[in-house]
Amino acid sequence: MGHLALGTVAPMKRASLARFLVLGFFLTYMLLPLLATVAFSFSVRWDRTILPEGLTLDWWQAVVERRAFLLTLRNSLFISVGAMVFSVLLVTPTAYWAHLRVPQAKPLIELFTVLPFGIPGVVLALALLRSYARLGPAIVYSPWMLIAACMVLALPFMYRPVANALASLNVRALTEAAQMLGASWTTTLTRVIAPNILTGVLGGALLVFSTVFVEFTLANLLVGARFKTFPIYMVEFTRFDARQASALAAISFVVAWLTSLAIISVAGSASRGRESLGPR
Q: Which residues are bridge partners to 45 per DSSP?
């Protein structure tokens, strides 16, 4: 028995070690470029040795003190939050309606939602410009057109988490129970379905925000200097100083991370508030 127990423990230890090594390799692969970018943004010089030669805050100060820094950051937050909010408002009820009323159309809807993966941003931007040119430059080159284009680009990231969350529920039973109690379609969606798929909606919203916040191609082609966004501002620095561009890249990551935490915190507070107002 003792030999049998030892023979069982050894493979378990090897499996744990293998998982640890795989996880460690993955984390190193993901974090090393980010850490190197941050280190480069603080370095005085880093082209002759394996480690930076000296540390300084000059590059961060140079990019933050420019007036365009806060302006482009505000513009990117406006576009990202706008695309996120409108995507939630459009995709969530549409996915719910398709899941409940026309489940046979879900394969076709899923096909359309994955098309943005195969359409380059340049093609999408040029198609929008040609299709809506008759509306005039005030609309075609406006931030609202950029929000609409980013919604199309980020559609797969919003639809898939919501669809998966709906698939994990008995949506028909919940809907019929709510309607038997006199709830309207809107009440059923907002008070019954939405709280149960909040994790999927929140995950999709975060993916949309992070995707749109760093989108350069659509922003550069649709609005350009008329409504300069943070990625455009960051790319401008890559032409003359990579260290300042690295500082902006690190700031972009921190802003996206803090915004994601804020969204999660607000959603969690709202969820706890609904639970406290539940049946007593």
A: 53
pLDDT digits (tens, 9 = 90+) for 196-254: 888 889 889 988 998 898 888 888 888 888 888 988 888 887 777 788 888 888 888 88
Domains of the chain by start residue, with CATH? 2-56 (no CATH), 59-276 (1.10.3720.10)
The model carries a pTM of 0.79
DSSP H or E stretch at residue 53:
strand 53-55
Burial class (CB in 10 A: 0-12, 13-18, 19+), 77: middle
Task: Yes or no: say if 164 and 100 are a contact pair by the CB < 8 Å rule.
Answer: no
Bridge-based pairing of strands 53-55 and 43-45 is antiparallel
Tell me how crowded residue 142 is: count the other CB atoms within 10 A of its CB: 17
Beta bridge partners of 35: none
> Residue 78 has what pLDDT?
94
Tally of residues, the chain:
280
SS3 168: coil
Q: What stretch of H or E contains 55?
A: strand 53-55
On whether the CB atoms of residues 172 and 143 are closer than 8 A, the answer is no
Tens-place pLDDT, residues 126-137: 888 888 878 777
Instruction: Please count the other Cβ atoms lying within 10 Å of the Cβ belonging to residue 52.
Output: 17
Spatial contact of 100 and 172, defined as CB atoms under 8 Å apart: yes
Is the pLDDT confidence value at 112 over 70?
yes
Cα dist. 211→42, 86, 115, 120, 214 in Å?
26, 14, 16, 14, 6
Residues 6 or more apart from 229 whose CB is under 8 A from it? 72, 75, 76, 79, 215, 216, 219, 223
The rounded Cα 142 to chain-centroid distance in angstroms is: 22
- Report how far residue 240's alpha carbon sits from residue 244's, in angstroms, rounded to the nearest whole number: 9
